[in-house]
Amino acid sequence: xxxxxxxxxxxxxxxxxxxxxxxxxxxxxxxxxxxxxxxxxxxxxxxxxxxxxxxxxxxxxxxxxxxxxxxxxxxxxxxxxxxxxxxxxxxxxxxxxxxxxxxxxxxxxxxxxxxxxxxxxxxxxxxxxxxxxxxxxxxxxxxxxxxxxxxxxxxxxxxxxxxxxxxxxxxxxxxxxxxxxxxxxxxxxxxxxxxxxxx
Length: 199
Fold this sequence. Notes:
5-stranded mixed beta barrel; alpha+beta; elongated
């Protein structure tokens, strides 16, 4: 029986939202662009005043995401099982990840972030989406995870080290390109979904 470690799935969701927060930072910057012959530079002081909020949002987001990425790798390394399992059947499922873009990102970036109320609504929506995705075990269906080299596979694994050979079918998230015959160690995050590390 595989022990489930649910904490990594929350880290994965936060990690997957990195591009969204960077886009928010860019959208909150007020940089006037004019190609008129009489256009003049507004000055560094005014430019900093118009972009400082977005700059700190982007800087903070990058820092938080690096910490989350490090935490996810550490947790998975600590919780990975000792026994390796051999991939006997594999199917690439990366195409399923694209549903996240149209269903989540596009509605959120359509907001106008020039009022405090819009930021509050966005924070509530992000938390609500996170709860729904993690509770429904859909946290891994996010294409932005590809930015961190995560790939999605449906596989059948054969545990050769068990007393009796056991085969199970699961969905795995991995940073390696996997093929039939590869051996992996898995961290079970929810029923049917695991993070796998190639050995």
